[in-house]
Design a protein that fits this description.
The chain is an alpha/beta fold and about 325 residues long. Helices cover about 25% and strands about 30% of the residues. α2 packs parallel to α7 and α5 crosses α7. Bound molecules: zinc ion (ZN). The site of zinc ion has 3 residues, from loops. Zinc ion binds next to loops.
Length: about 325
Amino acid sequence: MEMNMLENFNLKEELKKRGTKKIGYVPFAQKANGSWVSIPVMLAVGKKEGPVLLADGCCHGDEYEGTEGIIAAFDALDVSEMSGAFVGVPALNLDAFGEMRRYNGNDFVPVDLNRTFPGNEEGYFTSSLAHFYFNNFIKHANGLITLHGGGNYLYLSPVTNFQHMGDETSKMSEAMARAFGFEVLWRDDECSGEQGMEDQVSYLNGVPAITPEIGGQATRLHHREETVGRIREGIMNVLRLFKILDGEVKTFDDQYYVNLEYIYSRHGGIHKPLKKEGEEVRKGETLSIITDVFGREVDRVLSPYDGVVVGFLAYSIINPRSWSYLLGRDVKKAD
Ligand SMILES: [Zn+2]
């Protein structure tokens, strides 16, 4: 079986090879067992020159919707009709992807890749992977779509995070979020980059970025194909926005803006979410009840403000001080 190793990979050089499609693994580091940690890449370089759109999935290893969506978009692309390039990274955190976990097992202590950007070349595994990806991929792109989802534990309404800072780069980010097509548009009004998030650091370096979140284990049984289709369509529409693909950019009239916050539990136990996606809640209303192993109530998660439910922990058990709800506030319909 051919491994398709792309040794000495240089994205800038690859982007000069007009009218080509290519897939392969970019080697990053060898492991103790002799196998390689690598970054899988799918390149579709248009016949004509133009911008570069980068999309990655599985920054968190259990969020497979992005992986399948990138594969579907890549398969649909015809390089003879493209002005510019699409670079797909279907599983950025490839070891975590294979381990079916959010984090990979290469660090002594689990490190969240999406809290580590721009990374450190001399840092631990995940930090140096972030550094490698940031410098060899993100910096060469004109736009970034980093795909996330509910993973093994969360349920989410489809929501797209974008930078909302008033400058030209973040206006492009907003246009990308609108074009991606999900109903809920998550405004990021701070974007300091201090949390080490990939989209924020990308934006701070002049590359507009969005983080669409969709799917998760709770939806995969019945909605997997639909979810993958929505991601494929979202990528295609953003490619039209960048004029990498011809055609009119589709618009959506059911979108609304929110600010989002995670609402945490105090205690762990059996988690019973009472409010579901899209429901409006009032300040002080009960979102979920947490009981101990005897069924006795140990905690009650309350809504800290009037808002709308965007996501919740779909797993039966919750840890202490863990995400119980993802709640939107300052809801504003998009024009
Ligand atoms: Zn994620």
